[in-house]
Each structure stands twice: as structure tokens, then as C-alpha cells.
Amino acid sequence: MKNILYLITGLVICFIAFTSISKIRKPVQDSLTSRLIGEWRNVYVKIIIHNKNKPAATMEADSTNWEARLGIKPIRTHFMEDGTYYSEYRNKKDSLVRRPSGTWNIKGDSLTMTQLKPDKNILKVQVKISNDHATFNGLIDFDGEGVLNDEYFGIQKKFK
After folding, report:
1. Which residue of 32, 60, 66, 79 has the fewest CB atoms within a 10 Å radius of its CB?
2. Which domain holds residue 56?
3. What total number of domains does the chain contain?
4. CB-CB contact of 111 with 128 (8 Å)
């Protein structure tokens, strides 16, 4: 009988500890989710491109040379409250040239963006937000070789 009482007491303690930890983590995730909602504009990007046939190459742009380096204005990404997003790619004359869209969600500190249009693609990056700046860090397939081996680091500023 004592063993059953100890077992039940242990299970109750584990349950309380688990639900307490879940309650602590959820507000952080909810906070990150709510802080991400809105329009964000790229201010910096650095991609280290790894190709099995060539040495690693680095592509880097910031707000001072974005248009010259990439031939477009800084990308504008809109994270909507309903879990959808769209990004606007505009040329130097401010004409819309590309508008991918899809769904997004946060799990822990990871952002998953599932692009549905114009083609299907999935982007998973670690995100951190400090004041009105967000950093995104992860592996992508920038060079189109089908392997997530290109290092991506980007900074975006929330547009108000």
C-alpha cells in the first residue's frame, strides 16, 4: 500500500512539474508569435553558399548596398495573425515582381514558413526578436542544388 502511495505521489509531482514547465514555455512562444505579426523589411543578409564543386562563396548585403547587390529593394514580409504570410519583392522602380505566400508558425524559437505560392517550399530558421529587429538564422538551399547546406543569417526591421 505504501508503494502505491509513493507511486501516486511521484506521478502527481511529475504532472505538476510538467504542467508548470509547459505554462512557462507557452507564454514565451506566444510572445514570439505575437511580436512577429506585422510587416518586416530586410536590412541585412549574409549567405555562405556551399557547393560541392566550388569553394564556399559569401553573398552579403545591407541597407547601404541592397539594391546594388541584389537588384531589388529590401524584401517586405508580412506575418498575419491568422498564420499566413506573404513577401513582396520589388524592383528598383518599386514595381512588384514576386509575391510568394503561405503559412507560418512558431515552435520554441524556430520559425517554419511553408510557401504555397508560386511554388511549394519550406523554410525553417531560428528567430530572435529584440525591440524592432529580428534575426533569422538557419540552413537554406540558396544555390538550388537540392541540399539545405547554405548558411543564412538575416536581420529584419519591423515597419510601423
Report:
1. 60
2. 37-159
3. 1
4. no
| Range with lowest mean pLDDT among 7-16, 110-119, 150-159 | 7-16
Tell me if 110 sits within 8 A of 129, measured CB to CB. Answer: no
Rounded Cα distance between 122 and 88, Å, is: 17
At position 70, the amino acid (one-letter code) is L
pLDDT tens, 28-78? 457 899 999 999 999 999 999 998 888 899 999 999 999 999 999 999 999
Quote the DSSP letter at residue 94: -
Judge whether 20 lies within some domain: no
Give the C-alpha separation, 33 to 85, whole Å.
13
Does the bond joining 100 to the residue before it have cis omega, within 30 degrees of 0? no
